[in-house]
Amino acid sequence: MSIVTKNMDLAVDAKATGSSAVSSSPASAVSKAARTAGKVAGLAVLVLATCPPAAGADAGRPIGGSLPAPGGPYTVGTVAMRLVDRSRPDPLVAAKPYRELMISLWYPATGGGPLAPHMPPLAAADWDRHSAPPLGIAKGAVAWAATRTHARVGAPVEPRAGRLPVVLFGSGDGGPRTLGTTLVEDLASRGYLVVTVDHTYEADQVEFPGRRLVRALPLPAKLTPKVIAKLLAEHATARLADMRYVLDRVTALAHGRPIGGRLPTGMLGAPDASRVGVLGQSLGGSVAAQLTREDARVDAGVNLDGAYVGPVAARGAAKPFLQLAAETHTRDSEPSWKSFWRASTGWKRELRFKGAAHGSFTDLQPLLPQIATTLPKVPLADYVGTIDPGRSVAAQRAYVGAFFDLHLRGKPTRLFEGPDTRFPEVSLIP
Predict the structure, then answer these.
(1) What does the pLDDT read at residue 29?
(2) Which of 203, 219, 275, 301 lies deepest, with the highest CB count within 10 Å?
(3) Cα(273)–Cα(156) distance, rounded to whole angstroms?
(4) pTM exceeding 0.85
(5) Are 187 and 401 in contact (CB under 8 A)?
(6) Is residue 274 part of a domain?
(7) pLDDT value, residue 16
(8) 3-state helix, strand, coil in the chain (%, to 5)
(9) Domain containing residue 252: CATH number
């Protein structure tokens, strides 16, 4: 995700797109950004003057939204945890002597318990005030805090699922960890432990225990292509260290050691740290590639429509890697995709989703079309394209699930061998 959540790619990293016109006229910025959103690594310029007018609910009552139910055989559980890495200062706030993160564990569960909210309350309120209006949604128009996931808070781990392969998830630049819930819940329902990570001071908002909210650092006043590239590099470096630390904690959990906070019954020893994947959207996809390349503990990775930042763009990956692309995102239009593909020597596949846009690979895919039925002025196609939302979600879940089943579980699939009549919107790119 990006900075609209800072702001859903409403400007262009000129280095990634081959354009020099970050300062293009306000009248053309939105449409140009919509055309190029799939090419950027995830950072976008917050230029509120270029955003469409925010639309309010016609009846004055906030709109409700829902997420699609996961399709696997297991009930899903979740728990949020605060982690503190005292081995390093915060990479984004030099005065802070440690790095503090929020994560969530998503896993196959048994038993009941309350359904977890999509966003915790303070984060939802902040999203409503700061992140939704640049998407064309007025403050108070949507009941963001009312949306529920399908996961039971703190439910015991389902023992029938056995040891759980691990998948780490990272959102796009500026996006909170909650924006990947649609894919994450489905993987958990298939028997995976998925760990979602908020990157503090970069994510729009991070809610910590004790009703404490930490917002993203303000952007520089002048966002030139050089400044944007520098920010992306800084964020990617911080994220890589965050993900390695989180993987350290998950490995400790796999060996039966608590990692702080109250764990669900059965979680100690449940992760299988010998089977680890990484999944990321936008900048999170670039970091997934870098972690797959550099960390021996990681077996496979997935990039959801993100350009590559840093050395991985030229070096590629030697382990299994999957790229999912919006319709206009191609190796010809994105230099980092072409160089990454050529350098990658492991199992690799690229899938293009006809009609999809950059935000199609986030929870905006199911949520924005629901909102647009009441708020028709929301620029739906700019953010999630024209692909049918239900079919988009079903195809993403099928391909991502099959990929991790193949490479973390050794479960054969023919899904990557050629076109599949169930998903005509998806093309396998040679």
Answers:
(1) 29
(2) 301
(3) 20
(4) yes
(5) yes
(6) yes
(7) 36
(8) 35, 20, 45
(9) 3.40.50.1820
Strands (DSSP E) found in 162-248? 164-170, 193-198, 205-208, 212-215
Residue 307 tokens, joined: 């350009």
**Is 351 within 8 Å of 423 (Cβ atoms)?**
no
Domain count, the chain: 1
Tokens representing residue 156 in the block: 């015991």
CA distance linking residue 160 with residue 263, whole number of Å = 18
Cis peptide before 303 (omega within 30 of 0): no
Contact of 312 with 341, CB cutoff 8 Å: no
Q: Kindly give the pairing relationship between strand 348-353 and strand 271-281.
A: unpaired
- Residues of the domain holding 216: 14-429
The structure tokens 């005065």 sit at 95
Domain-located, residue 329 = yes
Residue 372 CB coordination number (10 Å):
20
Q: Which helix (H) or strand (E) holds 277?
A: strand 271-281
Whether 33 contacts 9, CB under 8 Å: yes
Grouped pLDDT means (10 residues each) for the chain, 430 residues:
37 32 27 34 37 60 95 98 97 97 98 94 98 96 98 98 98 98 98 98 98 96 93 97 98 94 95 98 98 98 97 97 96 94 98 98 98 95 98 98 98 95 96
State the CB neighbour count (10 A cutoff) for residue 163.
15
How far, in Å, CA of 194 to CA of 192, rounded?
A: 6
Residue 256 tokens, joined:
């039966």
Closest by CA to 311, choosing from 288, 270, 340, 350, is: 340
pLDDT at position 14 is 31
Residue 102 is encoded by which pair of tokens?
């929020």
Q: Within a 10 A sphere around the Cβ of 133, how many other Cβ atoms? A: 21
The predicted pLDDT at position 112 comes to: 85
Judge whether 199 lies within some domain.
yes
What is the structure's pLDDT at 1?
Answer: 37
